[in-house]
Amino acid sequence: MDARAAVSRFAAAITRREWLALAASIVVPAALADTPKPQSWPRNKPQPTVALPTLDGEPWKLSGQVGQAVLLNFWATWCEPCQAEMPALQRLSARYAQASLQVLAVNFRESPDTVRRFVANTGMGLPVLMDADGSAAKSLGISIFPTTVLVDRRGRIRLTVSGECAWDQEPATSWLRAALQSA
Question: What is the topology classification, in CATH, of domain 33-181?
Answer without folding.
Answer: Glutaredoxin (3.40.30)
